[in-house]
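hey
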């Protein structure tokens, strides 16, 4: 059985252990990230939806999609936004948040917004049901 709470905690734990950001939290929605006080770079994990989604470059079908909002004050440097995005992908893409579950698959990465204080990206990852490359 797929346990949403265990999967969310597994994602937060992986990001925390990897040292991806100074603030790592689970939120009810990805829009709450704007309102949450954080030390940058910051990562916020939210359930994006429970539905079937076509994952890029594969026949993978997903039922549960997670949004990881990555916020940073600057783009470059080892503590910058781009380094945090890379670290999130290294920690999560292809990894299983809970033992016995299929690995997370990258759905997409989107630039979200830039404000006077920070910029953000949203990385969407899917908890997969099947994983078969196109052309197989």
């Amino acid at each position: 059985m797929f346990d949403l709470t265990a999967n969310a905690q597994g994602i937060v734990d992986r990001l925390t252990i990897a040292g991806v950001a100074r603030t790592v939290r689970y939120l009810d929605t990805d829009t709450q990230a704007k309102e949450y006080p954080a030390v940058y770079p910051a990562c916020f994990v939210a359930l994006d939806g429970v539905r079937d989604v076509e994952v890029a470059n594969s026949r993978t079908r997903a039922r549960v999609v997670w949004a990881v909002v990555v916020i940073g004050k600057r783009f470059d440097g080892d503590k910058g936004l781009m380094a945090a995005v890379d670290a999130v992908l290294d920690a999560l893409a292809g990894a299983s948040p809970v033992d016995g579950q299929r690995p997370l698959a990258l759905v997409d990465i989107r630039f979200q917004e830039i404000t006077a204080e920070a910029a953000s990206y949203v990385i969407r990852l899917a908890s997969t049901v099947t994983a078969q490359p196109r052309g197989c």
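The longest helix spans residues 4-18. The chain has one domain: 4-130.
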